[in-house]
Design the sequence.
């Protein structure tokens, strides 16, 4: 189930041209505030907002509750808390500055790429 949720979020990010999508497995960290982080970036504030909106829409369609969201006012760094997953959507230069994933350099991580679409003629 968690794999599905992580992929759903990654696909929602990639659908809006978010980049550098990774998930960090924080379950082995004592006292971690969540089980998973998903981190991505976008090239401008409009795109950061569009990525956040798309994630919220896709997660709601799947029945997930967005418990808290912050950062929509300036769209430099939007954080969405789904309980078991916290999503960080950065404006690229803010991600480069804060280097959030470097704080958990020793935890398992997965990188997400856009899935290839198979045309009907290929299938």
Sequence:
């Amino acid at each position: 189930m968690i794999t599905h949720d992580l992929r759903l979020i990654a696909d929602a990010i990639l659908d809006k041209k978010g980049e550098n999508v990774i998930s960090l497995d924080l379950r082995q960290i004592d006292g971690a505030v969540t089980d998973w982080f998903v981190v991505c970036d976008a090239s401008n504030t409009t795109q950061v907002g569009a990525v956040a909106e798309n994630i919220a829409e896709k997660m709601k369609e799947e029945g997930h509750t967005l418990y808290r969201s912050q950062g929509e006012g300036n769209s430099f760094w939007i954080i969405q808390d789904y309980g078991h997953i916290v999503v960080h959507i950065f404006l690229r230069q803010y991600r480069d500055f804060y280097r959030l994933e470097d704080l958990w350099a020793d935890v398992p991580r997965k990188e997400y790429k856009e899935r290839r679409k198979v045309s009907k003629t290929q299938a």
User: Anything to note?
Assistant: Helices lie at 2-15, 45-61, 92-98.
